[in-house]
């Protein structure tokens, strides 16, 4: 029997450390509002870091060892649950 409502997935963890990723970090990540942990370190991501202020459940954000430029937006400071950057 098929469900009439669309499937809904809740994503809590984005773990892509050391995956040789390149390019920019998509602003779409900010729409994944159930994320609590983002691990994207040790890749070759570049350009600016998108505004992640909508990720109000975020606890951990690892973006080290990439090629990002620009500043980290101050909206991250409004995420009360964020304790590891």
UniProtKB/TrEMBL annotation:
UniProt entry keywords in alphabetical sequence: Signal
Keyword Signal on entry: yes
The keyword Thylakoid is annotated on this UniProt entry: no
Pfam families the UniProt entry points to: LRR_1
Family annotation (InterPro entries): Leu-rich_rpt, LRR_dom_sf
Domain of life: Eukaryota
Gene3D superfamilies: Ribonuclease Inhibitor
Signal peptide: 1-24
Classification via PROSITE patterns: LRR
Official protein name in the record: LRR receptor-like serine/threonine-protein kinase
């Amino acid at each position: 029997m098929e469900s009439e409502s669309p499937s809904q997935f809740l994503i809590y963890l984005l773990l892509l450390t050391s995956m040789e990723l390149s390019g920019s970090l998509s602003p779409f990540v900010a729409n994944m509002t159930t994320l609590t942990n983002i691990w994207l370190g040790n890749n070759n991501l570049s350009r600016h870091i998108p505004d992640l202020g909508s990720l109000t459940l975020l606890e951990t954000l690892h973006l080290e060892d990439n090629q990002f430029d620009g500043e980290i937006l101050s909206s991250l400071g409004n995420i009360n649950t964020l304790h590891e950057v």
